Amino acid sequence: QEDDEIVLQITYTFFRCLQHQQTRDVLLNHTQVVSYFVDLLYDKNEEIRKMADQTLDVVMEFDPEWARQIRLRKFQIYNAEWLQAVEREEQGLDAEEVMARRAGG
Q1: Is residue 77 classed as helix, strand or coil in its secondary structure?
Q2: How far is Cα 23 from Cα 70, in angstroms, rounded to an integer?
Q3: What is the Cα–Cα distance from 4 to 48, expressed in whole angstroms?
Q4: Per-residue pLDDT at 104 exceeds 70
């Protein structure tokens, strides 16, 4: 619980730093902070996930290159269950096609 609070406070600090041009430029161009926030979208703590999501929204607002990558990752995270179902369905259809071809051939 204490570790979660520390992570939340650090995330909030970066959230605030990203709202100022000079610190934002350094953080976005000379650190891996965006990757860390993407990783935090998977955190078990809901408050940390929310803060990471809000922080990435700030990044997207100011950096179009990061925005494309972040949008894709958010889509994958928020639609993971649906994407897995589609993948299973596609694999199932492929298996059915193979079996149908074997039976017919």
Answers
A1: helix
A2: 20
A3: 7
A4: no
* CB distance 8 to 52 below 8 Å: no
Q: Which has the higher per-residue pLDDT, 105 or 51?
A: 51
- For residue 27 the two structure tokens come to 């953080």
Determine the Cα–Cα distance for residues 73 and 71; give it in Å rounded to an integer.
6
The C-alpha angle 3, 18, 52, rounded to 5 degrees, equals 40
Hey, what's the torsion of the CAs at 53, 55, 56, 62, to 10 degrees?
A: 150
**Helical ranges in 18-79 per DSSP H:** 21-30, 33-40, 46-62, 64-78
- The two structure tokens encoding residue 92: 């199932």
In this structure, are residues 38 and 70 in contact, taking their beta carbons and an 8 Å threshold? yes
Residue 56 reports pLDDT greater than 80: yes
Residue located via tokens 């179902």: 85
d(CA 60, CA 78): 17
